Amino acid sequence: MNRKMKIFFMLLPTLLIIGGIFFIGILKGFFISLGYFPEVGLEKFTLYYYKEVIKDKAFIDSLKFSLYTSFWSASIGVLVGVLLAYLLLEKKNKESIDYWLYKIPVIIPHTIGALIIYNIFSQTGILSRILNYLNLIDDYNDFFQLVYDTHGIGIILTYIWKEIPFVVLVVYTVLKGINTKLSEAALNLGASKRQVFFHILLPLAGPSIMGTFIIIFAFSFGSFEVPFLLGPTNPRALPVKAYIEYTNPDLRHRPYSMVINMVLSAISFIFIIMYVKVFKKISKYE
């Protein structure tokens, strides 16, 4: 028995338990979304709940809101993270405090991150109090509403703060692994550092950057705690809407929640396919 097969059989019991729980849950949720929930008297398969949810304006608004916050948090996070990774690559002193300081948000849970953003950027937070003390605003209510706002700024700020270090860790490792002779040759031929970055380093790190974007986007899209703590009441993020539908005391209402969960699962599956394709490109490059 070769080493790979031995490792597979050693992991098989754990994989069966975890995989079994996961797939049974998905299958049960799928059946309920189709109206089959015999525990409460629903015993006929139907697409009625899918039609009702898709026609619901609140669902469409929630889907748009989740896509919007996920796109901007992932885009800004990746953009800033790539630039910081490049600056770290060019930094000579690798042991300075700022070289380690950016990693702190990685170990902080998203829930704590949401509370930090709330305490700083809410209308009664630290920033508004400082501005009020400096007489730049007359009242706390004059401060911009950055939390519980319909644009999801508080949500986006939390994800950006949390995910930039993740992007830096991934992209910096990739940039560090690129053969320095490529950059040195370009510089000797008269290229500027800006040209080296955009025409050599960035294209070579492109697949990893795209993979990082997909991971952050997918996580933000399916995350519950941050939009639950900082999001508006209307529109709600899709995971929050699914939770509210799930907690409805009428169990016959449960299929609506499962439909939303199936939509979330389907979109997440699309992200997985995209990431696998990107990962193949990364492996090919390596």
Brief overview:
By secondary structure, the chain is mostly helical.
CATH architectural label of the largest domain: Orthogonal Bundle
Strand content: under 5%
Percent range of helical residues: over 70%
Give the tally of structural domains.
2
CATH topology of the largest domain: MetI-like fold
What is the CATH superfamily label of the largest domain?
MetI-like
Query: What is the H/E string?
Result: HEEHHHHHHHHHHHH
H/I helix tally: 13
The secondary structure category is mainly alpha
What top-tier CATH class of the largest domain fits best?
A: Mainly Alpha
How confident is the prediction overall: mean pLDDT?
85
Q: End-to-end distance, in Å?
A: 28 Å
**Number of separate strands:** 2
Computed over alpha carbons, the radius of gyration is 23 Å
Global morphology: globular
Question: Mind summarizing the main beta sheet?
Answer: 2 strands, antiparallel
| Residue runs with pLDDT of under 50 for 5 or more positions | none
Give the spatial strand order of the biggest sheet: 1-2
